[in-house]
Amino acid sequence: MNIKIIGVGKLKEKYLKQGIAEYAKRLGTFCKFQIVEVPDEKAPEKLSPAEEGERILAKIKDKEYVYALAIEGKERSSEEFAKELEDLGTYGTSDITFVIGGSLGLSPEVLKRANTKISFGRFTLPHQLMRMVLAEQIYRGFMINAGRPYHK
Q1: What phi and psi values does residue 132 have, to the nearest 5 degrees?
Q2: How far apart are CA 134 and CA 152, in angstroms?
Q3: What's the pLDDT band for 47 if we cut at 50, 70, 90?
Q4: What's the whole-model pTM score?
């Protein structure tokens, strides 16, 4: 299985890089895991979710199953999420992509391309932190599916 997270902007915080690297290492047992960064819009006068959206869509292949992280998405328990990952792998979808927008959110085009929207609650979290939270939940899902004691 191939798992990809597309995130807007470059990750700068050392502690987040270290946390994500740890989950990436752990995920290596279960899948090929990668994070793809696309440039964010910096100049306030040029802020455009459409331009970020084009850069995001350029990183998504037709065959990929896409989760858009969106506050209006469906909330899932860790067990429900694990079951979805298992079902996708079982029924022939081995390329799964998660998209985390930047401060502008996700463009309508990216949301339209998504196969499903997922929400981690109504909190607003920094998109850089969300990468680590998502990596942990993907790892947790694989551990649940493997019947390992990580998930309590």
Answers
A1: -70, -40
A2: 18
A3: low
A4: 0.93
